Amino acid sequence: MNLAQETAAQGSLLATILPLILMFVIFYFLLIRPQQKRTKQRNVMLSNLKKNDKVITIGGLYGTIIDLTDDKVTLRVNESTKLTFDRNAINGVVEDNKEENKK
């Protein structure tokens, strides 16, 4: 093989690998990185839970935290009903807007 043929072979190898690398970079920024950010935000939210927080579960149940352990949460959904959930079943903390309550 002469030098021109070796250069052409290396160029075709680069042309073959470059689209794969480009696709991985696009997938990383469009899919992987945003998912990692959401997971990190969710873990921070779950670690910051405290008593008397108003929350919503992944099933859509609203309640107030009355007891909290490392892996379980007990919610009061009305005056007489208490339900125990896995901590990962909490979907989010509900912000209580006092301005909306006045209306």
UniProtKB/TrEMBL annotation:
GO terms for biological process: protein transport. The chain crosses the membrane at residues 12-32. It is a single-pass membrane protein. It comes from the Bacteria. PANTHER family: SEC TRANSLOCON ACCESSORY COMPLEX SUBUNIT YAJC. Belongs to the YajC family. It comes from Tepidibacillus decaturensis. Keywords: Cell membrane, Membrane, Protein transport, Translocation, Transmembrane, Transmembrane helix, Transport. SMART domains: YajC. GO terms for cellular component: plasma membrane. This is Preprotein translocase subunit YajC.
